[in-house]
Amino acid sequence: MKPIKDIRRLLGAQLKDIYSAESQLVKALPRMAKKASHPNLAEAFKSHLRDTERQVARLNQIGQELDLKLTGKKCAAMAGLIEEGKEVISDGEAGFDTDAQLIAAAQRVEHYEISAYGTARTMAELLNLGHVADLLRESEDEEAAADDRLTEIAMSDLYPSLCECEEEVPAAMTTTDFIAVIPPLM
């Protein structure tokens, strides 16, 4: 990989990476929705597919505004994250355990996307590309909302039924709080 010494070219590289990531995800989300046994989780994946399609459209708009072709790069990080999700889909039988693993895989994807959009947005802001930054912020916010929804499904519907917690799990618990009440493995 050759060094990029110009912030505008660096932004272009980031946008190409995000475009590839989102394009890969458009193909992966229907498989995840099909594998999910919990109706709320299946709907969350279907809903996020619609968000992802809008995000690809936003990226195309940004590419046009910046006169930048976004195709031609493969996001290796997303390919790896999707491969992990494929393992869950092919290895597990439908049920709470597989749903919990799907959520874990999907949240890794969301966290990657949140950071990618945030990084690109920061570069756009530095370049005084306000409209581009606004479009990237919109996608970043959608990714954060998807992550929150997955956490909500996990905490209310899946994780409590997968453990034999010594204490009852309060409804407004964070992931960190929940981990504290799981009995030790040893």
Task: Jot down its keywords.
single chain, mainly alpha, 6 helices, disordered C terminus
CATH fold descriptor: Ferritin
Largest sheet: none
SS class: mainly alpha
| Tally of DSSP β-strands | 0
Instruction: Tell the overall outline.
Output: elongated
CATH class: Mainly Alpha
Helix fraction, binned, reads over 70%
Beta-strand content estimate:
under 5%
Oligomer: single chain
How many domains comprise the coordinates? 1
Count of alpha/pi helices: 6
CATH architecture: Up-down Bundle
Rounded to the nearest angstrom, the radius of gyration is 18 Å
> On the 0-100 scale, what is the average pLDDT?
87
CATH superfamily: Ferritin, core subunit, four-helix bundle
First-to-last CA distance: 45 Å
Low-confidence spans:
181-186
Q: Give the helices and strands as they follow along the chain.
A: HHHHHH
Short overview:
It contains 6 helices and no strands. With 186 residues, it is an all-alpha fold. Helix 1 packs parallel to helix 3 (76-91) and helix 2 packs antiparallel against helix 5 (130-162).
Could you characterize what this model shows?
- By secondary structure, the protein is mainly alpha-helical.
- 77% of the residues lie in helices and 0% in strands.
- It contains six helices and no strands.
- Helix 1 packs antiparallel against helix 4, helix 2 runs antiparallel to helix 5 and helix 3 runs antiparallel to helix 4.
- The radius of gyration is 18 Å and the shape is elongated.
- It starts with 6 loop residues before the first helix and ends in a 5-residue tail after the last helix.
- The relative contact order is 0.14.
- Residues 181-186 have low confidence and may be disordered.
